[in-house]
Amino acid sequence: MRDPKSSQAIARKRKRAGNEHMRSIEVELYRSVALSACEAISPEASLLKCIEQICRLMDWQVGHIYLPSQKRDALASGSLWYLADPIRFGPYQEYTESLVISSGVGLVGAVFATGQAHWIADASKDPSFLRARQAREVGLRSAFAFPIRTCKDTLGVMEFFTTRHVEAEPALFQTMNDVAKLLGKVYKRKRLEFDVMMKASSSDPLTHLPNRAMFSSRLHEAIVRGRRSGAPGAVMIMDLDRFKVINETLGHEAGDRLLRAVADRLLPFGGQYDHLARLAGDEFTILVPELTGTQTAAQVAEAVHELFEQPFSLDGHSIYLSVSIGGSLFPTDGEDTATLMKHASIALDQVKKDQGKIQFYQHSMQTPTSDRLILEHHLRQALDGDELVLHYQPQVCLRSGSIVGAEVLVRWQHPDMGLIPPGKFIPLAEETGLIMPMTEQILKKACEQGRRWQEEGLMPIRLGVNLSGIHFKRNGLDESILETLDETGFPAELLELELTEGIMMENVEATITTLKKLNAHGIQFAVDDFGTGYSSLSYLKRFPLSVLKIDQSFVRDIAGDPEDRAIVSAIIALAHRLHLKVIAEGVETEEQLRFLQGLGCDYAQGYYFSRPVDSSHFRPMLASERIIPLGMTALIGAGA
Question: Residues 137, 265: one domain?
Fold first, then answer.
């Protein structure tokens, strides 16, 4: 028979071991919860990271959170879950998602009411647990819930389950109580930071009015309300006449102060008619969500004009401004934000063309060229509003599997029309001359991003930026590019400018002179889509080139078309004779890759490695340094 003292000693030893184990878990929980929450980009993301960390450290299979609902003294199931086995536990999640739990009801309600952690040894059999049957069906047993608290409030309740029967441990209660307090502080701070960030991202930094994104959101809400009430509404875009002349005469700083003065004058009016915003540049907009029987959109527009009858005082000068207004009505002229804004823009273009004051959209305005005019109008706004985003497609060494460079590609994320493909706006930019400021913006953004990656300690890579032929028809191209490099601190030797054969041959001597000036500073040059143009091989050797890029039309059928294979082989051989490297574009299959390596191609890019992605998705690829898709490992080894 075991000595009672010996049994007590063993129990104390087990308790000490359990406490030490819990303390080690507590330390790790503290560290991981704080780190995960702080690294998250939003309050919800911080909670999700914490749920995942707690489940993994405590070996719980299901984690979930309830947040305050619109119903008083109740919690609603949030969409933040950790499921160790989504297929097995999915039915439980699906059932729980629709629940709203009142204070004091069930496990979660009890935690919410008392502000204290609660434990259920077997939730599948406990009559107080309202979801016992659902828990039993998926094999969940012990349940534990604790509040996320600040000094005064319960911000939510976290709930966890295991598939084991586990008795409550006092040490666990204390640990999770401490973690809950930390999580409450972190979550509250993250919520404040996120609210500030959202406010900043939804307002214009110059005038502090709502920006285009916020206006679009409000317009959408007004349209929905209008459908329910049946009341019509109006959207009006205002453009300040002659503002460009004033801006150039008095300077941009004075122009900014004038825009702020305009916003201040419009502000009471905007409050009267509900919504006012600055779209971009010198364009403002007013939303009148519900027009009454005695109030017409034209009367509102006339009232706006009256605001500009008095001059603005600026640096001792009296500045007289007039305003052009284009408007559209909903639901008459459209029932979605994109259509209404488009039609208001068409009306604004019409009133400026006619040199009038106010014009509301009419269907007769819709001419074959109107869409192009509106797109051009929005493109100008996109340059001012920073709507152009850069994507990066990796270029991979076929011997090492490492990323050696990336082609920089531009995407236009319009707030109303969505993602506009490059093929639709790049030709328009070239026709209108907007390609110049657009390329300057792209080049600066790319160099800034490349510099940031270097500062983060990531492997330096070459960034390829496309140049249009229009750049070579203007003076000062070399000075502009060198100025951008100097301003951003991006190394010149890591910048690769891509030109087509047509650009090179349009004005050979002038192009060679410009390229040599830039090449003297270390900038590299690539011939894009080689093989599709009409370059003379006798001239090719005179250009300071580093790379030939084989057009994807030759790569697409390289595995099955002997002629394409012969063309690619000849281009590679020619390039190597001229001491140039070769990049094959449009690589999509391993078979294409094997043929290219067999032909001695240096680099490749294409969907086989990655689609063009934004900087946040490109960074992990860059951090790994090697892109080795499934099935490529042996290929790399064979070519090394």
Answer: no
User: C-alpha angle 305/310/316, rounded to 5°?
Assistant: 140
- The count of domains in the chain is 3
458, exposed or middle or buried, with CB in 10 Å at 0-12, 13-18, 19+?
middle
In SS3 terms, 265-320 reads as: HHHHHHHHCCEEEEEECCEEEEEECCCCCCCCHHHHHHHHHHHCCCCEEECCEEEC
- CA 100/CA 77 separation, integer angstroms: 6
| Same domain flag for 357 and 398 | no
Is 219 found in the same domain as 102? no
Range of the domain at 480: 392-405+433-639
Q: What CATH number should be reported for the domain holding residue 347?
A: 3.30.70.270
Helix segments in 42-169, DSSP class H: 43-58, 86-97, 106-114, 132-138
Q: What are the beta bridge partners of residue 68?
A: 75
Mark the ranges of the chain whose per-residue pLDDT is less than 50.
Answer: 1-2, 5-11, 14, 272-274, 368, 534, 629-640
In whole angstroms, what separates CA 7 from the centre of its chain?
A: 62
For residue 54, tell me if it sits in a domain.
yes
CA atoms within 13 A on the CB side of 492: 16
Question: Among residues 169, 198, 227, which one ends one of the domains?
Answer: 198
Residues 177 and 108 grouped into a single domain:
yes
- Does some domain include residue 205? no
pLDDT of residue 2: 45
Does residue 450 fall inside a structural domain?
yes
Residue 436: which residues within 8 A CB-CB, separation 6 or more? 470, 471, 474
Are 343 and 361 contacting, i.e. CB atoms less than 8 angstroms apart?
A: yes
* Dihedral pair phi/psi, residue 564, rounded to 5°: -60, -40
- Give the end of a domain, one of 175, 198, 221: 198
Query: Residue 138 phi/psi, 5° resolution?
Result: -105, 0
Looking at the structure, do residues 89 and 183 belong to the same domain, yes or no? yes
Residues 223 and 361 in one domain: yes
- Residue 401 belongs to a domain with what CATH number? 3.20.20.450
Encoded tokens for 126: 């406990």
Q: What is the pLDDT of residue 39?
A: 58
pLDDT score, position 292: 65
151 and 52 in a common domain: yes
Predicted local distance difference test score (pLDDT) of residue 520: 94
Pick from 526, 525, 532, 581: nearest CA to 556: 532
Query: How far is it, in rounded angstroms, from Cα 465 to Cα 405?
Result: 11
Residue 418 placed within a domain:
no
Strands 547-550 and 524-530: parallel
Per the CB < 8 A criterion, the answer to whether 339 and 333 are in contact is yes
**What's residue 6's pLDDT?**
47
Q: Are residues 339 and 462 in the same domain?
A: no
User: What are the structure tokens assigned to 344, written together?
Assistant: 């208001």
Q: Are 301 and 266 in contact (CB under 8 A)?
A: no
CA 42 – CA 45 distance, rounded (Å): 5
The span from the CA of 366 to the CA of 332, in Å, is: 15
Q: Strand pairing of 547-550 and 581-584?
A: parallel
User: Rg (Cα) of the chain, in Å, rounded?
Assistant: 32
